[in-house]
Amino acid sequence: MPIQWFPGHMAKARRQVTEKLKLVDIIFELVDARLPISSANPMMHEIIHQKRRVLILNKADMADPSMTEKWLAYYEKQGIRAVAINSKDGQGLHKLTKAAQAEMSEKIERNRLRGMKPRAIRAMILGIPNVGKSTLINRLVKKNITQTGNRPGVTKAQQWIKVGKELDLLDTPGILWPKFEDSDVGFRLALTGAIKDDILDLTEVAEYGYDYVGAFYPTFLTDYLGTEEPLTGKEMLERIAKNRQLMDEEFIDYSRAAEHFVRDFRALKMGRVTLDRPDEYEEVATSEPS
Ligand code: GDP
Q1: Mutate to test the pocket of ligand 1, among 83, 88, 269 (most ligand atoms within 8 A of CB)
Q2: Which value does ipTM take for this structure?
Q3: Centre of ligand 1 from the C-alpha of residue 130, in Å
Q4: Which of 39, 43, 21, 23 is nearest to 31 (CA)?
Q5: Which pTM was predicted?
Q6: Which residue from 15, 103, 141, 227 has the fewest beta carbons nearer than 10 Å?
Q7: Name one GO cellular component term (predicted).
């Protein structure tokens, strides 16, 4: 369940991540493919320093596939290695080892020239709550013959999952906090369920989602609401309330209608909607520190 973050939580999370970082060669940073920027932790660079990273757009099955292509092109242009996967069904998991090897290739070659024996790449998963970290780890555990073992010299024993011969993955992910000072980011996180429903007004969340889908996927709404009539956010909620008997003569239950809309959005009843768009970020994009 998503928790609400306070400065104490953040400091503790950061400390735990910093400890784990020492154990690994590379980070798999998990984000939600529907909102790759809004579901990323803005302090990632600062926290992981020079550590190599592969960005994983998870839940690609829920995102608009054409936008996922655009996001992959966006990251490629910035020199960030990114892959899209679906942890729930296990699609695309084979990309992880290859991406890690490609990202580590210089170091692997350097070690080889120094005559060092090749060893498995050590990786950890990092991301904000609800992006699918545990789902991915469970998938990888199930898929692989698990040989876990403690490594000496680690205060708290960490378990490793062997993903083939070439990758060792820490079995507990690093958890970072989302940042939602920006109202677009907050609404987008709320719509996908990445933050608790009581943090923002759900009626506003529903109206934000309605406006967004209306702007970028207008035909989805025609099918969902069964009308081509342009409705205001309020009218949309009234329509849902009417269709689902969430009203009587005196009272329209807007918040229940909003709950229905948000639930339907999450269940893809409207379709696969991507909420962050690369063209919003192109101008402010900064490249990776080298
Ligand atoms: P964590 O907090 O990052 O560990 O996230 P979880 O692994 O608990 O996943 C949060 C929710 O997202 C769960 O309901 C998962 O079933 C769902 N989920 C995770 N990965 C995927 C995915 O690739 N596709 C879909 N459709 N759902 C996913």
Answers
A1: 88
A2: 0.99
A3: 6
A4: 39
A5: 0.91
A6: 15
A7: cytoplasm
